[in-house]
Design a protein that fits this description.
This protein is mainly β. Helix content is 9%, strand content 35%.
């Protein structure tokens, strides 16, 4: 049995050039068969988006509240500079010493935003929550009509069948040791749904909240389709979180673009303090890794501290009995304390700053850093099991107007591993007998 492959080619024998250019279809049944083969008869009728019309209202940030007083905001200045910068006396109004984080509020006149757990290094939309709304006119409005752009994913099938896809991307084999829902959704997006996603670029001024008031799409058949807001319960990406008592629908159509710096350069540390929980001793140590003296000299690893309990040696050949070997003064303890409530119950558990140096007092404290000096108490739940590191750092950035901004900011981050101070009780110093 011989199988002959057959192919059909269109040919136009007309001597008229106009008819040849028209390329009339001689076999419409072939096109119907191809549509049936790819399943176009089972799909819904619809065209591609031809253009998108959008209208919006913008609300610019007006004030910043760091310590109970509203301050005017310059949208050209980096928001990190406005929030983190210390006063000439070294105080940071937004810094909460008991929680080791920043707290501040932003206001547009129509919206009140609050950030209660900002630790750095940059202020982004997810750092704030919507806590209140009030009727007010927008600071700006706008409309735009644009042609949407289809999303392109490397490795996705090419829309033209006779083109080969990018061989460098293979979505069927993601580098995931344990396949999960996300690793399966990625190939589905690239192979099946990528043609259904489009991008509509809209510029937005930094330091504003934008609400899309109208969005409509006109497809290639001329059909106008209005697009309503997405349900807040089904899509929360880039959506502000509302505080308790606020309707989540009030924030579902708001997009917050903060006026943060494009890049921030961090220079020398002013202070570096590690807060490390010690489960065996049932306390938290604050290790002053680095701090600066009044004359600006940098002290690191507690090298300026003198170990307690080592008095003058009368006779170096004889071992000396010691009652205790205390920690270096660079290690400041925080001891658990309770505040009684009604009926004698424990109302609050917190950490109170202590001392290991018996000679330290209020006029001559054991600590040297401003971070420890301000944190006379700590919230017990703010110190994670692996510890937390707090730094005061010189920072630099440029605003949108090109001006340079210098400030000293504070940043909290996970702490590197550290060795706890080796304390001992009732031992002989200099005795090598074992």
């Amino acid at each position: 049995m011989v199988d002959f492959a057959q192919q059909l080619y269109g040919a136009d024998s007309s001597v008229r050039l106009a008819e040849a250019v028209q390329a009339r279809v001689k076999d419409p049944l072939w096109f119907l068969a191809r549509q049936w083969q790819v399943g176009e008869f089972t799909a819904e009728n619809g065209g591609r988006p031809a253009w998108v019309s959008a209208a919006w209202s913008e609300f610019a940030l007006a004030t910043l509240n760091r310590s109970g007083t509203d301050e005017q905001i310059d949208l050209d200045a980096p928001l990190e500079w406005a929030v983190e910068r210390e006063e000439p006396n070294g105080e940071s109004p937004a810094w909460q010493s008991a929680a080791l984080e920043h707290s501040f509020e932003l206001d547009t006149g129509a919206h009140r935003l609050r950030a209660g757990e900002y630790v750095g290094p940059t202020v982004d939309w997810y750092a704030v929550d919507l806590v209140a709304t009030s009727p007010a006119d927008p600071t700006d409005t706008g409309t735009r009509r644009v042609v949407p752009t289809q999303i392109a994913v490397p490795g996705a099938p090419h829309p033209r069948w006779w083109r080969l896809e990018d061989a460098d991307a293979y979505l069927d084999s993601p580098n995931d040791p344990e396949p999960n829902v996300l690793s399966m959704l990625l190939p589905e997006l690239g192979y099946v749904d990528v043609n259904d996603w489009y991008i509509v670029p809209l510029e937005q001024r930094g330091g504003t909240l934008r609400r899309i008031t109208e969005l409509s799409v006109v497809d290639s058949f001329g059909v106008l389709t209005p697009i309503p807001p997405v349900d807040a319960e089904s899509w929360t990406v880039f959506t502000l979180t509302t505080a308790d008592g606020q309707d989540p629908a009030a924030a579902q159509d708001l997009l917050f673009v903060p006026n943060n710096a494009v890049a921030i350069v961090s220079n020398d540390d002013v202070e570096d303090v590690r807060f490390l929980p010690d489960e065996h001793a049932n306390l938290v140590w604050a290790f002053e890794q680095a701090y600066r003296t009044e004359d600006g000299q940098l002290v690191t690893n507690g090298e300026a501290s003198v170990r307690q309990g080592a008095g003058p040696q009368d006779d170096a050949d004889l071992p000396r009995y010691r009652f205790a070997a205390g920690a270096s003064p660079a290690w400041v303890p925080y001891l658990p304390r309770t505040r009684p409530g009604p009926g004698g119950a424990v109302a609050e558990l917190y950490l109170r700053r202590g001392r290991t140096d018996p000679q330290a007092n209020a006029g001559n404290p054991q600590y040297h850093s401003r971070i420890v000096a301000e944190a006379w108490r700590l919230n017990e739940h703010e110190v994670p099991p692996d510890g937390i590191r707090v730094r005061r750092t010189h920072r630099y950035a440029r605003g949108s107007d090109g001006r340079a901004y210098f400030w000293v900011g504070r940043r909290a981050e996970p702490s590197p591993r550290a060795t706890f101070p080796r304390t001992a009780f009732d031992y002989l110093e200099g005795d090598d007998s074992g």
